Each structure stands twice: as structure tokens, then as C-alpha cells.
Amino acid sequence: MIRLFVPDPLAAGASIVSPPDQARYLTTVMRRAVGDEVALFNGRDGEWRAKLAEVSKRGCRLKVEAQTRPQTLGPDLDLVVALVKRPRLETIVEKAAELGARRVRLVVTRYTNADHAKIDRLRAIAVEAAEQTGRLDVPEILPVEKLNAMLDVWPSNQRLMFCDEAGDARPALEALKDAPDAPWAILIGPEGGFAPEERERLRAAPFVTPVSLGPRILRADTAALAALAIWQSVEGDCR
Amino acid sequence: MIRLFVPDPLAAGASIVSPPDQARYLTTVMRRAVGDEVALFNGRDGEWRAKLAEVSKRGCRLKVEAQTRPQTLGPDLDLVVALVKRPRLETIVEKAAELGARRVRLVVTRYTNADHAKIDRLRAIAVEAAEQTGRLDVPEILPVEKLNAMLDVWPSNQRLMFCDEAGDARPALEALKDAPDAPWAILIGPEGGFAPEERERLRAAPFVTPVSLGPRILRADTAALAALAIWQSVEGDCR
Fold first, then answer.
1. Do A216 and B171 touch (CB under 8 A)?
2. What residues of B are in contact with residue A227 (Cβ under 8 Å)?
3. How far is A222 from chain B, CA to nearest CA, in Å?
4. pTM tops 0.90
5. ipTM entry
6. One domain for residues B220 and B129
7. Do B87 and B152 have their domain in common?
8. CATH of the domain at A53
9. Using an 8 Å Cβ cutoff, are B213 and B172 in contact?
10. pLDDT single digits (tens) A11-38
11. In angstroms, rounded to a whole number, what is the distance separating the alpha carbons of residues B5 and B123?
């Protein structure tokens, strides 16, 4: 069953007009025709069965029938990731959606080479990954921030898993076992790592849990994915 | 420091001739010149410091100086992965190298759409990832096999972590905690999952530990990476 994210409210009898891209995907790529069923979700109203009611050159219309799953949300987990080159950043967003991060926050650090990202493109990737992975929400992609500014206003009740490649941090699994149930975030640095003063600030912050991801040097996308998988196994919904 | 894999024996005073690709990378891409240092490894003799001794149009020559790290090997871990489309298969090989798999075995299953892979290209990706990740060996990429034939001769002392998306398997972390120290393999299916008879055979085999990777549907590359990260945290060298 094809799953599609739509921004519209979902309720029995509602009529949804698909934008051109989605209509093309449904009819031309997936060869669906009038009468075929799809699943719809919008991040608020759960998952609904809908029927393709009308196909024209300008788009298509979907008729919402019945709710198939109530709305649920995964764990309260942010992925905070320093800007890296586009292909790896796109991989990170795709994998964050598959591995159940609720938000992706993009940060500029001292050794980051970039200072902007195509947020719309990253949002589209998050939507597609959410459709395929079966979740009922789409991870939010937040605008680029500066790491220091973000840390200045960090909420005291949110824990930050700091993937510290330079150091003597405990292995992630062990470090997380003693950690409290709380909203969490995972911080992944740029390819060049963190500057010494950034590392010091992070290691000294009371909300930070420094962790090691093992003896090998990991690219940013690998580190993000490994950290998400381990966190979900210890603190999240893969327990 | 640039790290390069070479097939040659490494010993103090040895002279290594770089093939054209490697020479071009060193001199044109990384702008190294005569007298600059690089690190060399061959999977057998540890890591060695070498100096760029000669650069010509045909290639370059490296002079091996002293061993900087003795040879070590990561855990005895195979990644067994069903053939998937080329970009995702290449990602899987890159990540298997970064996350410390010792071998990658490619399999054809009932629902696999492909029956061959460009092994040479995958080997080149494994070499490059091993160079960057700091390991002292390169994961072996084995030729394509059939899943059933592989299971027919499966060694009785090797455990197989079967990532079973269809079922009621225990979460990976929990299932691995009770599992024995042994040589291990991780099995990742194709995008369409395993056929019912494949699943039955796997679930019934005494060497199999079925695991769940959580409530979301994961693409093959995400599943491979998540499984490797969790395995290394519980059984491997990220403990």
C-alpha cells in the first residue's frame, strides 16, 4: 500500500487534491488508477485509507474513507548535526526519518565549511522517507543555527548525547544505560570534528552525556546513523 | 596524515611503487610532494610511516620508514547482505568498512531482483573507507552466493543475527545480550523482505538469533548500518 503525506486535515469523507508531483508519482510512476486505495497521513490525524477518485491532467483527487491507525508519535529525540556536504547531509536526513528522530537541527560549528542548506529539499527527503518507513509524522527540519547560540538557550530538562570522537568518553551503550528518561538530542560534529573550546564547553555542560562510538573514525552520516540506532535501542522505541 | 592501503609487504626500507590512481590522488588531489609523509597498511604488517621519495609522470615511489602501529584485527564479523540497487549496495559496503565488519558476503534470495554485483568496484569502495576509518585491514568482498547454498554449509560455530522485519523477534539489544561469544554474521534481506520459506528455515536454524530493529520499516542500507552499530556495541569492539 502506497503511503502519502498530505498537509490537509484528514477525516471521513474529506476530499484531498494532490499537488502535481504527488499526482505524477501516483499515476505515472506507480500506475495507480481511479478506485485504487492509498494510505494518507498528515502528522496529526493518524493514518487513513483513501481512494483515488479522479485523475486529470492537472492532478488528482483522493477521497478519504476510514482511519486505519490512530496518531502516535515516536520518542522525543532531536538529531543535531553540523552541516556537511550535501549528499551526506541528505543521507543523514533520510536516515533520521527512518530511525525515528522527531526533529533535525542543523548547526554551524567552528570547523564547519558550510553555512547554509537547502531546507526545502531536506524537507522533501524527510517526507519521502517518512512515507516509506511507516511513521505517522515527518521529522521537522529546523533552520541553520550556530552551535554556541543553541547551547546558550539549551533547555535544562533535555539531555544531549555528545558523540565525542576525540576523547575518553564511555562507549555509547554503557553511557546511556545510566542516563535518565528525558527528551534527548544527539549531537554529531562536522568532518573536522569539534574545536577544543567547543569540546570543553560540551564536556562541562550539565545536560551533556559524552559517548564514544567505537575505535574507528566515522564519517558524519555513519556516526549519525550509528548513534540513532544505539539510542533507539537503549532509550527509544526499539527496546 | 593520509593513509593508503597497498598490497605490498611492508618493512623498514621497503620501496613501494604506487599505481597511477593512487599516485594521482597523492600528488594532484592531495598535493603531496617529495619528502612528505604518508601512512601505509596492507592488512598484514600493521601501519607504517613512509615518505614520498619520487614523483614522475608514470607514478610515484614511497620509501617505508618505521612501523607506527602493530597489526590488529577487529571482531570476527561478517555482513551478509542481499543484493540491492547499486547506490545502496555501495553505501552498505562503505559503512561495513567503517563499522568494522571483517567480510561482506553478497547473497541472492528469493525476492532479490539482481544476481550480480561489480565486485571490483565494491572492493575499491571498501579500500577507500578502510583508509579513512583508520582500520588496519580491508573488509573482504566475497563473490555473490545463493542464500540457501550458503545456509547448507553454514559453520556450526558461527552465529547469525537475522534481522527479521516480518516478525515477533526480540529487540536486537535484548536478543544479543544472552548470545554467546562466537564468530558472528549479520543477515540483511532485500527490499522485498524474505520469502516465507526462507524465514522459516532461518527461524528454525540452531545458529540463528532473530532480532527486530524496531517498529519502522528500514531500507536495506539503514538496516545494515543499524545492525552493525548495535552488534558492535553489545558483542564487538565498541563495548
1. no
2. 229
3. 7
4. yes
5. 0.94
6. yes
7. yes
8. 2.40.240.20
9. yes
10. 999 999 998 889 999 999 999 999 999 9
11. 12
